[in-house]
Amino acid sequence: MSTHENEQKVPLRSGGPAARIAVIPGDGIGKEVTPEGVKVLRAVAARGKRALEFVEFDWGAEKYLREGVSLPAGAVEMLRDEFDAILFGALGDPRVPSNQHAADILLGLRFKLDLYVNARPVELLHERLTPLRDRTEKDLRIMVVRENTEGLYVGVGGFFKKGTADEIAVQEDVNSRKGVERIIRYAFEYARQNRLKRVCMSDKSNAMTFAHDLWQRVFKEVRQEYAEIESRHLYIDTLAMEMVRDPRQFDVIVTCNLFGDIISDLGAQLAGGLGLAPSGNIHPGRTSLFEPVHGSAPNIAGKGIANPLGSVLAAAMMLEFLEWKAEAATLQAGVKGTLLKNYVTPDLGGDKKTAEVGDWLAEFVARTARD
Ligand code: NAD
Ligand code: IPM
Ligand code: MN
Predict the structure, then answer these.
(1) Ligand 1 in reach of 92 Cβ (< 6 A)
(2) Does residue 1 register a pLDDT over 90?
(3) For residue 370, which of 85, 46, 124, 101 has the smallest C-alpha distance?
(4) Is 265 designated active site?
């Protein structure tokens, strides 16, 4: 994209009259939880002065199996130019064992929209939800900042003598100076803007002596610009252990793509499970994508029992990104309300259906939202 085209782009974001949202439910329970996210967002918009416009896309396993199309031609440009944000469900279907469509669509959008931040908050919303003994809400509030465009995810590598006894498989870990610097800087900026005191960078530089040596050097450099923030480093194995032993010591954690994937599921379980965990795939100032951390959960898909709260909290992150702060807070309050009343799906010990939780939240929003 030339600078000229960039300048001509109509500024839709932040405070405009309407925000345009692309909705990609995807596969499995993505198709069940995403409509609840949209339902609750519609309730928000119905009470506010600003509008939300939704356009749904049927990208996922069905289309891939039917037409051989995963991410359609021109999709990236369309999303970038015509939408403010994307609400995404999940991808993954047992009929596509290679997961090729998920790689094309989800990783494709993360890479091609250059959504270099994967922000995955780990927040305990009710003390009964944590498996940790004697921990309460104040002990667990961490922002995991996962690098989202590089590392072991870039798909550089190959096979040699595939299918033989001498087979070799290579998967390269790609770390650019620019990529490492921008994610570490984002973590410090996030801490500064949210008045958080501590940033922990986690890597495996004792074993990954090239890739994570770069992380070490960049971290030491960038942290000098944030003297008011306490910065520290932990190896990823130690971090996993410390997150369980004493999660209270962390405010912001920044790490590479693969480690961030793993510790965000660990963190999700500490805070009540995957059904509750949201995430934002973000490039500040550009079209960004919001999704629950969980996958398509084929083991419970089609039963109407998937927890929609991860999608609703992802929708709240999306509203924050759009600068609809009060509305985002309303959604968060609503989610806390469902937990307090135990109006929840079976994964959290309740007996409610996915749509019942969504309906309750939509009514909550209708009662409480103010513009
Ligand atoms: P998963 O997150 O789909 O499920 C893991 C476990 O958590 C399952 O027992 C599932 O029932 C439960 N679970 C997840 N979300 C839930 C919810 N909202 N409510 C209640 N229970 C929930 O992980 P998996 O089983 O390893 O992967 C299934 C498929 O999803 C795979 O194809 C995988 O590649 C894909 N996946 C996609 C994404 C994504 O699109 N962002 C993320 C993770 C996994
Ligand atoms: C996630 C998922 C994806 C990832 C998979 C589906 C490629 O696990 O969003 O956490 O590893 O990033
Ligand atoms: Mn994951």
Answers:
(1) yes
(2) no
(3) 46
(4) yes
Selecting among 204, 226, 235, 353, the annotated active-site residue is 204
- Of all ligands present, the nearest one to the C-alpha of 153 is 2
Q: What is the CA radius of gyration of the chain?
A: 20
Q: Which of 175, 48, 170, 155 is nearest to 102 (CA)?
A: 155
Q: Tell me the CA distances in angstroms from 64 to 1, 78, 95, 268, 298, one per residue in order.
A: 28, 19, 10, 30, 17
Residue 89 backbone dihedrals phi, psi, to 5 degrees? -95, -95
Mean predicted confidence (pLDDT) in 88-109: 97
For the Cβ of 261 lying below 6 angstroms from any atom of ligand 2, the answer is yes
Is residue 354 over pLDDT 70?
yes
Tokens standing for residue 203: 């890597």
d(CA 24, CA 46): 22
Average pLDDT over residues 19-32: 98
**31-88 pLDDT, tens per residue?**
999 999 999 999 999 987 789 999 999 999 999 999 999 999 999 999 999 999 999 9
Given 213, 237, 246, 351, which residue is catalytic? 237
Of all residues in the chain, what percent carry a pLDDT higher than 70? 95
At 136, is the pLDDT very low, low, confident or very high (cuts 50, 70, 90)? very high
Q: Is the pLDDT score of 206 beyond 80?
A: yes
For residue range 210-254, what is the model confidence (pLDDT) as tens digits? 999 999 999 999 999 999 999 999 999 999 999 999 999 999 999
Å from CA of 261 to ligand 3 middle: 5
Structure tokens at 84: 């403010």
Residues 66, 153, 253, 324: is their CA dihedral positive or negative?
A: negative
Q: Which of 64, 40, 95 is nearest to 301 (CA)?
A: 95
